[in-house]
From TrEMBL:
InterPro entries noted in UniProt: Acyl_CoA_acyltransferase (IPR016181), GNAT_dom (IPR000182)
Organism: Cellulomonas composti
Protein name: N-acetyltransferase
Molecular-function annotations in GO: acyltransferase activity, transferring groups other than amino-acyl groups
Domain N-acetyltransferase residues, every copy: 19-181
SUPFAM superfamilies linked to this entry: Acyl-CoA N-acyltransferases (Nat)
Keyword vocabulary terms for this entry: Transferase
Length: 199
């Protein structure tokens, strides 16, 4: 049906500065669950995966979600260090969101997150030609809010009572976005953080 978001079983692989984003699959479940705990998972809307079977269920759900391109993030040595996704992808409308993101604490504060964001946003804007990339974050997740702010994304507002946590509590979502005409400045900022030459 026109305008609906379709089920995606993707084969898209993205390469960035010291990272590769590959379609998440069962083979990544053990690596992902190895660094997940309640504190790291805070702000997600699903229960914390406790073992490989739980993470496999999370991976299967991510792969089955319409309009979602779910990735495992691999470092330069091929080690699984996180996951991120495009979701609510609607290329006809020229928009998508980036989220469902979590990383091993060992790579917090490194170039992994900016490298992933650069790869994801370059593909979205430069290959797919979208007009809008959005980020939806639990307002209580100060670390993620700060990370998206550093991208140069514009804070749009807060949706009150928008999120339902795994424990049944309600939370607010803050929205950020980057539009196509803002992308060159955001890309330059990300490249500078990664120590890459302008381009």
């Amino acid at each position: 049906m026109r305008g609906t978001i379709a089920l995606v079983q993707h084969d898209l692989t993205l390469t960035g500065s010291g990272v590769r984003l590959v379609p998440v699959s069962a083979e990544h479940a053990a690596g992902l669950v190895a660094f997940v705990d309640d504190a790291l998972w805070q702000g997600m809307t699903s229960p914390t995966p406790r073992d490989e079977a739980d993470m496999l269920a999370f991976v299967d759900a991510a792969r089955a979600m319409p309009g979602r391109y779910a990735f495992a993030v691999l470092d330069g040595a091929g080690r699984v260090v996180g996951s991120s996704s495009y979701y609510d992808v609607d290329l006809r409308m020229g928009r998508l969101e980036i989220g469902h993101t979590f990383y091993d604490r060992a790579v917090w504060g490194t170039t992994v997150n900016p490298a992933c964001k650069l790869a994801l946003m370059e593909h979205a804007f430069d290959e797919w030609g979208v007009h809008r990339v959005a980020f939806r974050i639990d307002t209580r997740n100060a670390r993620s809010v700060a990370a998206v702010t550093r991208l140069g994304a514009i804070r749009e507002g807060v949706l009150r009572g928008h999120r339902l946590a795994a424990d049944g509590s309600r939370g607010d979502s803050v929205y950020f976005s980057v539009l196509a005409d803002e992308w060159p400045a955001a890309r330059a900022r990300l490249r500078e953080r990664l120590g890459l030459v302008p381009g």
